[in-house]
Amino acid sequence: xxxxxxxxxxxxxDFLSPCLGEADVMRRVLPQAEFGKWLTQFLPQxxxxxxxxxxxxxxxxxxxxxxxxPRWLELExxxxxxxxxxxxxxxxxxxxxxxxAAEAHRRAGLAAVTGEHYEGGHWLGSFAVYLTTKRxxxx
Length: 139
Hints:
The protein is mainly α. The protein has helices at residues 18-29, 32-42, 50-53, 61-67, 71-87, 95-111, 118-133.
């Protein structure tokens, strides 16, 4: 696939970002140099549309009201962004924008992991564990 449609995210129904999820899978199966080329074709609009990579946590107030409150999306997108960052070369121009989006996801998603409601106290924790332990990222 090429030119993943970031403008469609978030739909308000998603548990993950289809674009970031696919990119995270591909970074696991492609050699590093090949992944960078693939990512350029897959997300050619990045980092120009880096706000869209941020999904829910980077939306405006009116956009958020349409999307609902998908905190799991923020956590999972943080995991995906961290994975992608782990294989991009240090001089890749996409790193700064991707790191910024990953940190925004991390802050917004972890803030929702509480015992105040079922969502935050029950199953958001599993997403938070992947995010904080960097599971699936080779060190």
